[in-house]
């Protein structure tokens, strides 16, 4: 059931880690879609956004505020985008919940 993100948490595969604490990990995406593109994940393996529960409120908030802080520390003061893909139609490919944070280029709407 482990995804490759569990392997990154456990240091079984390498990643460029930006931030870690007891609850979450942030690391650069291996295939960046913007000059800044990192992922924020919980250490707890939640499969999709649909699998978050009321008990995860504080965890979800912590992920969001960490995304905000790191985006600004990595030079995205002028703006950035946070994306969470949910399930197949949402474009999710790794079934361990994650926030994408993208910045340092102009974002467009609608997304693809
Ligand atoms: P999703 O498509 O599930 O929303 O996003 C998964 C993301 O994980 C993709 O942007 C993909 O590039 C990234 N990714 C996949 N495998 C690896 C890996 O081994 N290391 C890192 N750092 N990112 C990965």
From TrEMBL:
InterPro entries: Histidine_triad_CS, Histidine_triad_HIT, HIT-like, HIT-like_sf. The keyword Cytoplasm does not apply. A motif (Histidine triad motif) lies at residues 96-100. GO terms for molecular function: hydrolase activity. Its EC number is 3.9.1.-. Residues 4-112 form the HIT domain. The active site is at residue 98. PROSITE patterns: HIT_1, HIT_2. Keywords: Hydrolase. PANTHER family: HISTIDINE TRIAD HIT PROTEIN. This is Purine nucleoside phosphoramidase. It comes from Pseudomonas fluorescens.
């Amino acid at each position: 059931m482990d995804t490759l993100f569990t392997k990154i948490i456990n240091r079984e595969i390498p990643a460029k880690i930006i931030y870690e604490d007891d609850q979450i990990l942030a690391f650069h995406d291996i295939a960046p879609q913007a000059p800044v593109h990192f992922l924020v994940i919980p250490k707890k393996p939640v499969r999709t956004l649909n699998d978050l529960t009321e008990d995860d409120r504080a965890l979800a908030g912590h992920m969001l505020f960490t995304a905000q802080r790191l985006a600004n520390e990595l030079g995205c003061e002028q703006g950035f985008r946070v994306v969470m893909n949910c399930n197949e139609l949402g474009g999710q490919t790794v079934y361990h919940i994650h926030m994408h944070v993208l910045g340092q280029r102009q974002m467009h709407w609608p997304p693809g």
